[in-house]
């Protein structure tokens, strides 16, 4: 259940059905996916990931990439089979049944609710490191209030500055890698710049690295978002599948290289504050000037991402209210003056206040609970399409229709089981609540749930 943040409708011609305009080529789709992924996020979560993986962050990102790539291949196959705007919710609904599709969509709602919270938490953690005398709750509340006001007023700041933000993020990330390499080389790092240490430590159990990979997968979220652009892409049967896989691979390369060089510059997982570990490393390798540049770029990216993420929550809840999946009077409300789903945006802001009681690791795990369920469902959809005989029409055989999605599904389930226990408990409660709500909406599962038009 995903909504494109930049979907434009073509003006309806007389006697013709209104359709989305096909204007996006592969470069534009790649830019959208990478911007949604926000490459600098690898620095925002590094300290938490290094601690969870026992200082094997680079390997954790690599393991997560394996799961993501196999899942990305499945997304690409389904995007060719169902060339309409949608994602795991749409694919599961069409491949299995509306009830299961609803539950997958319900699970991914957890992603949408907690994504802005994580963005605000990371931003607040780094501002707190720069200004230690200012209480963290002030930064969190400031993020929530400012983004909520901007979204209610209808200002789409993140969308307007996507290209500039991507240039800034790539430049800062590249500079960080160079400075880490220079520092490690000057400090005489064991093994030099080519070392197996970030990937392999004999005393670290695989379970610890898998726990890290379960958190690392958060950084990849967004590779599948381009499936919502299917109706706006030129030659979508080729463009969307290629873009999905390329975004996963490019993102994975960025994350692995960043984690590798960070570990070279700062061996070990001991930090003053794991939530702002990259701030500490930035000061070590680049001094106060680079710290200011890094902090400015990270906060700018986080602020814009927060606006976009909260707006996505508001639009998704509005779609569900409009189609009467949720109470229409509340969730289908549009502010008469600003023409925005003001109540939904406010709800997302209130939910974000949970950040005052949570940390980055726990809230990230909540997001990944829904993501791993959705990824697993997508892989299972491909396998079902193969076994019911539709795969052959689209040109993928036993390897692409069974082996690859099976590996993807097993890896996703493994990562799901490696999540924080609190995340698993909350995720299970959320899932059961969705099942009860579905039973109520469908009068005891006797009729199909209403479909959300995205």
From TrEMBL:
Keywords: Membrane, Transmembrane, Transmembrane helix. It comes from the Bacteria. GO terms for biological process: transmembrane transport. InterPro entries: AA-permease/SLC12A_dom, APC_superfamily. Residues 41-382 form the Amino acid permease/ SLC12A domain. Gene3D superfamilies: Amino acid/polyamine transporter I (1.20.1740.10). The chain crosses the membrane at residues 29-52, 58-79, 100-122, 134-154, 161-185, 205-223, 243-262, 289-318, 338-358, 364-383, 395-417, 423-441. GO terms for cellular component: membrane. It is a multi-pass membrane protein. It is found in: Membrane. This is APC family permease. It comes from Trinickia terrae. The lineage of its organism: Bacteria, Pseudomonadati, Pseudomonadota, Betaproteobacteria, Burkholderiales.
């Amino acid at each position: 259940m995903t909504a494109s943040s930049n979907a434009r409708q073509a003006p309806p011609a007389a006697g013709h059905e209104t359709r989305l305009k096909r204007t996006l080529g592969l470069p534009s789709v790649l830019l959208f996916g990478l911007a949604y992924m926000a490459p600098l996020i690898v620095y925002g979560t590094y300290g938490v990931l290094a601690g969870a993986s026992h200082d094997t962050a680079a390997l954790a990102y690599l393991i997560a990439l394996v799961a993501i790539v196999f899942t990305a291949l499945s997304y690409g196959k389904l995007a060719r089979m169902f060339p309409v705007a949608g994602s795991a919710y749409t694919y599961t609904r069409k491949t299995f049944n509306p009830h299961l599709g609803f539950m997958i969509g319900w699970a991914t709602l957890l992603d949408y609710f907690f994504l802005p919270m994580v963005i605000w938490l990371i931003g607040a953690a780094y501002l707190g490191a720069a200004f230690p005398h200012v209480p963290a709750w002030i930064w969190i509340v400031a993020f929530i209030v400012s983004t909520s006001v901007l979204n209610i007023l209808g200002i789409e700041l993140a969308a307007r500055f996507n290209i500039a933000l991507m240039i800034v993020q790539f430049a800062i990330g590249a500079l960080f890698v160079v400075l880490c390499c220079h520092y490690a080389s000057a400090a005489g790092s064991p093994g030099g710049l080519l070392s197996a240490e970030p990937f392999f430590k004999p005393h670290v159990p695989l379970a610890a690295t898998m726990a890290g990979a379960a958190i690392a997968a958060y950084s990849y979220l967004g590779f599948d978002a381009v499936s919502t652009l299917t109706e706006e892409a030129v030659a979508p049967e080729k463009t969307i599948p290629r873009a999905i896989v390329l975004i996963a691979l490019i993102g994975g390369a960025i994350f692995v290289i960043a984690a590798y060089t960070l570990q070279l510059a700062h061996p070990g997982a001991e930090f003053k504050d794991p939530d702002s570990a990259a701030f500490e490393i930035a000061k070590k390798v680049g001094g106060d000037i680079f710290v200011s540049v890094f902090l400015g770029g990270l906060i700018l990216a986080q602020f814009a991402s927060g606006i976009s993420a909260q707006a996505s929550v508001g639009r998704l809840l509005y779609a569900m209210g409009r189609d009467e999946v949720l109470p229409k009077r509340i969730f289908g409300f549009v502010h008469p003056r600003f023409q925005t789903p003001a109540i939904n945006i406010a709800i997302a802001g209130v939910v974000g206040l949970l950040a005052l009681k949570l940390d980055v690791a726990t809230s990230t795990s909540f997001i990944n609970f829904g993501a791993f369920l959705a990824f697993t469902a997508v892989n299972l959809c491909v396998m079902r399409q193969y076994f019911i005989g539709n795969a052959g029409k689209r040109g993928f055989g036993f390897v692409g229709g069974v082996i690859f999605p099976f590996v993807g599904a097993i890896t996703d389930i493994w990562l799901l089981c490696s999540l924080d226990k609190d995340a698993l408990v909350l995720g299970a409660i959320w899932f059961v609540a969705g099942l009860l709500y579905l039973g109520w909406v469908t009068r005891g599962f006797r009729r199909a749930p209403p479909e959300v038009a995205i």
